[in-house]
Every structure is written in C-alpha cells, then in structure tokens.
Specification:
This protein is mostly helical. It has four helices and no strands.
Length: 80
C-alpha cells in the first residue's frame, strides 16, 4: 500500500511539473539554497491539495474580482 501511494504521488508530481504549475504550488528555490526546495513526491502530495483548494475557492475569487474590476486584467493574466 505504501509503495502504491508513493508511486501515485511521484507520478502526480511529475505530471504537475510537466504542466508547468509547480511555480504556483511551491517556491522552487530559496535565496541562499542551491538544491531545489521540494521533491517530486512533495509536489505530488501538496499539488493535490492546491488543486482541490483552487476548485473550492474559484467562485469566491471570481465574485471578489467583480467587486474590484480594475484588478481583473491581472487576475486573468494569472489564469493564463
């Protein structure tokens, strides 16, 4: 069971890195740190939380963006 869970997290992490959304999930590097900050396993685990959180908050964010329309271009650029 542990092997299957670990493999699923690794595969999901690789998929998220290939999609290019790792920048949104976590910081890639710290200022004084040479190696990367998070492993593919961590990105796979935390990425699932990030995606479910995005789905949960999307309607709330869109309603808030309607209240302040001058920020809408920045929000839309971030979505792209």
């Amino acid at each position: 069971m542990i092997t299957i869970a670990y493999s699923c997290a690794i595969f999901r992490g690789r998929k998220l890195k290939a999609m290019g959304v790792q920048n949104y999930i976590c910081r890639l590097r710290e200022a004084d740190r040479l190696p990367r900050r998070h492993s593919t396993f961590w990105v796979g685990l935390y990425g699932q939380l990030w995606v479910s959180g995005w789905d949960f908050c999307q309607e709330l964010v869109e309603s808030l963006m309607r209240l302040n329309p001058n920020k809408l271009p920045f929000y839309q650029r971030g979505l792209r």
